[in-house]
Design goal:
Elements lengths: L2 H11 L2 E4 L2 E4 L16 H6 L37 H4 L25 H5 L23 H6 L27 E2 L6 E3 L4 E2 L10
Antiparallel strand pairs: 1-2, 3-4, 4-5
Length: 201
């Protein structure tokens, strides 16, 4: 990898992307969407694969249409400066400037199996997509956990974890994450160690 490619990868990780002499910057800086809570930023849309570079829904958006997120184009998702994701985020075709380089994701995530699907109740089966990467009960992937710093590599909760959701190690709300041990949903859905919340990665 030459120096230009290295620089491009670094810039992508902080919301800047380069192509030749052009530079795309998320605009406004620090944009967040209008979802409940603090909202989600461009880095999450990018690393979580929530959008495509032409402003469409990415593969990480509302997996299997099972989590009730609605359409990514919904006006209620307008955020900072009344802008939507496809206006603010370089990863989604917005921002100021041209060109985009995907952020680097260097983890291997757990993939759901038939056994995982068989272990859950009827209402949960649609949320277990056999052969696809792990997501939690709300549809958040490991990529989202990394982007939002929800967990640390030793399985403890990260700085981005909302204490209102309980302790990440206790599994009171989303899931139990214990370093180097299996991860389980509180409603019984189970997987092996989930990256990037495990030293097994």
């Amino acid at each position: 990898m030459n120096l230009r490619n290295i620089a491009s990868s670094v810039l992508a990780g902080i919301g800047l992307v380069s192509k030749g002499n052009a530079l795309c910057v998320d605009d406004p800086k620090g944009w967040r969407d209008g979802a409940s809570g603090p909202g989600y930023d461009c880095a999450t849309y990018a690393l979580g694969q929530w959008c495509t570079t032409n402003g469409g829904e990415g593969v990480g958006w509302n997996p299997n249409n099972a989590f009730g997120w609605g359409k990514i184009s919904w006006n209620g998702f307008k955020g900072t400066d009344n802008k939507k994701f496809d206006e603010a985020c370089c990863a989604c075709g917005g921002g100021v400037g041209e060109g985009y380089t995907e952020p680097v994701y260097d983890h291997t995530d757990y993939v759901f199996t038939e056994a995982d699907r068989d272990a859950v109740g009827k209402k949960r089966k649609k949320k277990i997509i056999v052969g696809e990467a792990w997501v939690d009960k709300y549809g958040y992937s490991c990529r989202v956990y990394k982007s939002m710093n929800l967990c640390n590599a030793d399985g403890t909760q990260g700085d981005g974890w909302d204490s209102g959701d309980g302790e990440i190690s206790g599994g009171t709300e989303m899931l139990a994450v214990i370093a180097s041990k299996p991860v389980k949903f509180v409603d019984g859905m189970a997987s092996d160690a989930v990256c990037p919340c495990s030293t097994n990665c």
